[in-house]
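User: Here's a chain of 506 residues. Predict its fold as tokens.
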Amino acid sequence: MSGARDIRGGIIRAGQLQRVKFLAGVLAIVWIAQFGATTATAADEAPRPNIVLIYCDDLGYGDVGVFGAKGFATPHLDRMAAEGIRLTRFYSAQAVCSASRTALLTGCYPNRVGIKGALGPRSKVGISDHEMTLAELVKQSDYATAIFGKWHLGDAPRFLPTRHGFDEYFGLPYSNDMWPYHPALANLKADRKKQGYPDLPLIEGERVKIAEVTAKEQSQLTTWYAERAVGFIERNKARPFFLYVAHSMPHVPLHVSDKFRGTSSQGLYGDVIQEIDWSVGEILGAIKKNGLDDRTLVIFTSDNGPWLNYGNHAGSAGPLREGKGTSWEGGVREPFVARWPGKIPAGAVCRQPAMTIDLFPTIARLVGAKLPEHKIDGLDVWPLIAGDPQAKNPHEAYYFYYADNELQAISSGSMKLHLPHAYRTLGGRSGGRDGLPVNYDQRKVTTPELYDVDADISEAKDVAAEQPTVVERLLALAEQARRDLGDSLTGKVGAGVREPGRLAEE
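Assistant: Prediction complete.
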């Protein structure tokens, strides 16, 4: 005889079983109506946090007061750190413009999605329609979205921010030195300068607002970005928003408004940083004025380290080795400050590593959005940013690529292995003066070099010979990365690499 046992172990006959199932279904519907709807309503009413991401260009690790800046002041960033958290080992995925921004906005290593280096004007490649950006991620939760500042993921219409989840865009499509006044063209006659770069446009939405940006407009960029950011916050205070402020500065050529010109003892570079700090204060002030403090996460960081061969127009990597364009700590370790009153403890410091690729899944968690179906490389690091003293970094390792898809270094815990590769250095020499660079020297890592970057922040002592088992483990991880992401130094093509967006050949 078929049937099912009741809770006392007896037998329920088939007809009885159908009646029991029907009654259970009715009771379930009643329970959901009375209690389930209440739960759903409570969840729906829970405010989703606003996300403000402030991203500088070529700002060094030592260019913020709480990270040791000298010759200028950053009171708003210092206050932001006092009211929030500093991450002292936060990394860019790659020490160059387009690649670093790709990682930030997709949660992927940039070579996974086919973006390398710094895309130039009229680039034939850009961000693919098949990738999900941070703006598209939060759109799942009905966020208002805006970018004010530098984009640099392709300047053709199909690559612009408004085609990739942003409601508003105002800024430069690429770096501010990609114009006819580039230092490399300084000695050319006027009619020949534009053979190097076209006029630099400022774009609003998908329309060119200023066709030929000059020094006059560049001096207003930081102010304009701040004003746009404040206006966006005020217009969207009643709904959740994602605001991405991607400063064009302090990338050379340096420009600053009259209100900050000559205000620092360091000179023009210090003036520029003080204006960026002012802009942070304007954004924090707008958040407070509109009663959004307790539901707004504000993050401040940079794309890569300082462009050292520009000398007094470059920032400082502090105690870190080398700068932009290298996989040494000075190229990829960035200042990072986050603030969210009530969610992040005031004055906290986290010494665990994290990377820009991790912000994508972390923000997905905070706003209740689903990650894309394709593979991403970042992992949720909210416990680290939230200041949990027991939190640990969830990655086995981070991988640092540069140039034409060269795997140059691997970081795991406190240990960092530099693989054989060529890199640029000033070799102890001073950089250029007043906007003109000097040439780099070229050096090579010839055998794997191992550094404990917690104990040896300057990567001065190679401990590979003392820790062969660590070297062996990291070399094995390097092989895994090469199979997945490729490595031009060894001729490996990665199985997990996706194509970027491409314009049709004319």
